[in-house]
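[audit] Reproducing an earlier prediction to check determinism. Same input, same settings, fresh worker. If the tokens differ from the archived copy the diff job will pick it up downstream; this log only records the rerun itself.
[audit] input (134 residues):
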Amino acid sequence: IADAAALRDYAPLPAARGDFLFRAGRRAEARSEFEAAATLTRNVRERAFLLARADACGDEGCYQDLDEIRGEGRQEGQQQALRGAILDVLHARGLAAGDTARSVLAAINDPGVLRRHLTRAATAATAEEVFADE
């Protein structure tokens, strides 16, 4: 099947092989398959997902399954959404978030801290006041 011309550029084939190899503990081979799949897809999110799977194959503390990767992706998405909301609130209130404030914001990964800053962004007199304790 793998040699069929119709499947030569079909990204799910090496992705599936990578998953099977990963589950079999053959991490180096799995990494190669995930990287091959990433080069075949045109979907940016799919490519990022496949490259994350490839990276996980080379780490000592690699991902155990897809749910772990999805969970990490959801957490990163939540962080990005909260950061964006903070900047949107500041912008809507006419408060400029300078480079320093943006750098501080980018370094915060705890969703609870980000939510606290979002609340502050609604009432603070300046963008710097939002991040005063960082």
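[audit] rerun output stored. Observation attached for the diff report: The mean pLDDT is 88.
[audit] end
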